[in-house]
Amino acid sequence: MHTYWDILIRAIIAILLLLIMANILGKQTISNMTFLDFVTSITIGAIAANLAFNTKLKSTHMVLALIVMGITSVLLSVIALKSRKWRNWISGSPTVLIEGGKILEGNMKKVRYTLDSLDQALREKGIFNMGEVEYAVLEDNGVLSILKKDDYQFVTKRDLKLGGGSLSFPIELIMDGALMEQNLTMNGLTREWLENELRRRGKRIEDVFYAVRGTHKQLFFDYYEDRIRQPVDKE
Q: How far is CA 74 from the centre of its chain?
């Protein structure tokens, strides 16, 4: 009878610790499985299972292992947040599989992504003709993002007022407040041009958290000061 009570108590502790760690690690872990989230989930699940049912192992050791794993995962998440270079290694980075309607075989081999997988992912997006795709990007969570060619995109009222134009891949200009100088150089843009665009809006580069030039070369800026007095959701 003592063994049954031991397993019951250990199982309850394991569930409670998993719930606590899920709250600490945040929504990203359950919504977008990056490399770090995948490794963390498997390891924590294995430790929690041993804590609940493996009576040969001390429960205190398993609890300590869970705590260490949780702290390590949080620290790696903080490092990924602070450093873009480390973020690519820890969480992975998006890979372009189709560019300008052309399949990039080299990139597909690099991420070991087959044509069958590509066809399946496109069908899941409601695309049965690969000729409709302008860009396809394999995100770091394994989801395929699609940008259709202009002729195959859904028409909106706004589109009816605008003439059809060529599409371009979005260019990230500022990320996490840092100027993406390489992106500017590769696309023939300059810091002076960006500063002028911001000056027209009464802003400086230091005020911007995220900036991107969209598919129609339109500019989008998100500032540190959002000036939302009553946000719908505040964590």
A: 16
| Residue 220: C-alpha distances to residues 128, 162, 216 (Å) | 32, 19, 11
Q: What is the helix (H) or strand (E) element at residue 195, kind and residue range?
A: helix 191-200
Q: How many C-beta atoms surround the C-beta of residue 222 within 10 A?
A: 11
Q: What is the DSSP letter of 231?
A: -
Tokens 């493996």 sit at which residue?
A: 54
Cα distances (angstroms) measured from residue 67 to each of 21, 22, 39, 40: 8, 12, 15, 12
Kindly report, residue by residue over 208-231, the tens digit of the pLDDT: 999 999 888 889 998 887 654 554
In 3D space, the residue among 102, 107, 141, 148 whose CA is nearest the CA of residue 125 turns out to be 148
pTM reported for the whole predicted model: 0.57
3-state secondary structure of 217: coil
Residue 1 in tokens: 């009878």
Over the Cα atoms of the chain, what is R_g?
Answer: 23
Q: What is the phi/psi pair of residue 167, to 5°?
A: -100, 150
* β partners of residue 96: 137
| Residue 44 burial (10 A CB sphere; 0-12, 13-18, 19+) | buried
Can you point out the beta strands (E) in the chain?
95-99, 102-103, 133-138, 144-148, 171-175, 178-179, 208-213, 219-223
